[in-house]
Amino acid sequence: MVSDGCSGLYSVTVFILLISSYIFTLAGKNIVVMASTVSIKIGIIGGSGLDDPDILEGRTERYVDTPYGKPSDALILGRIKNVECVLLARHGRQHTIMPSNVNYQANIWALREEGCTHLLVTTACGSLREEIQPGDIVLIDQFIDRTTKRAQTLYDGQPSSPPGVSHIPMAEPFCNRTREGPRFSSRAESLMFRQWGADVINMSTVPEVVLAKEAGLCYASIAMATDYDCWKEHEEAVCVDNVLKTMKENANKASSILLTAIPLISQMDWAHTIKTLKTMAQSSVMLPKH
Fold it and tell me: Do you know which InterPro entries this protein is assigned to (predicted)?
């Protein structure tokens, strides 16, 4: 489980897999691969240190605007093994945007308008469990949101926004077919989140996943554990230097997952899933009566 707040984002994580086991699962015989009957385009939102544009072939850049303002940076268009992809650095390519100031609305809107059907996002996280070690990869399954200041809907009542109010279901926030900050937690908070059943903690999953659901996009989050937060009373608490060191040593794991998963995703039939997500997004909007 992930929890998100000014002290960080926390989400429940059901799948705890190292890079090797994740790739084995994707390549295993249990995966049913068939040609998709709909056009697939993968949006990639790269988190801190996990937004390497070199994974894309034939890259071009496009600066766009949205009803919510400008996204975090340029959209980088390209391909991964002949699959169309769009990469966006969540915090900007120079990492100048702190989690609470990311324009999540603009990011999601821009990727949807670019034609993305799926979002595969990467994020760094702190581990709240002994068995999730720094460098491990986690697929986030649920979240607990503790933020208070972030816009969490595309239907925000502004003149340039879509009309109506969205009551989007969030029982299953992440696509099960893919599986506020900037401060770190206090020790009391870290221990509390462990008691709540949370497995990892980060700063950016919410509202990104909520907005993706409103936009009718298939969303999956690949989280890299970089530290043990600060719940271990007799060990050093999380600090930026250690987080950056772990990310640098293990960033290739996230890239390897994307390079392996995206071609497989493109070969699956997503027609029903995409239709279901779009129908849910549309039916969740209550329009004003005239």
Answer: MTAP, Nucleoside_phosphorylase_d, Nucleoside_phosphorylase_sf, Purine_phosphorylase-2_CS
The verdict on residue 258 lying in a domain is no
Helical (H) or strand (E) element with 144: strand 143-146
The interaxial angle of helices 205-214 and 271-283, nearest 10 deg, is: 90
Active-site annotation holder among 4, 136, 199, 229? 229
pTM for the full model? Answer: 0.82
Say which of 65, 136, 227, 269 is annotated catalytic. Answer: 227
Of 81, 85, 39, 40, the closest CA to residue 62 belongs to: 85
Catalytic annotation present for 145: no
Contacts of 223 (CB under 8 A, 6+ apart): 2, 11, 13, 122, 123, 124, 125, 137, 138, 139, 140, 200, 202
248 occurs within a structural domain = no
Whether residue 58 lies inside any domain: the answer is yes
* Residue 228 within any structural domain of the chain: yes
- What pLDDT digit, counting tens, does each position of 264-283 carry? 999 999 999 999 999 999 99
CATH at 92: 3.40.50.1580
Structural domain total, the chain: 1
CA count, 13 A, side-chain hemisphere, 85: 29
H or E segment to which residue 126 belongs: strand 118-127
Q: How many CB atoms lie within 10 A of CB 282?
A: 11
The response to whether 1 counts as a known ligand-binding position is: no
20 has binding-site annotation: no
- Model pLDDT for residues 190-230, shown as the tens digit of each residue: 899 999 999 999 989 999 999 999 999 999 999 999 889 98
Active site residue 65: no
Quick check: bond before 182 cis, omega within 30? yes
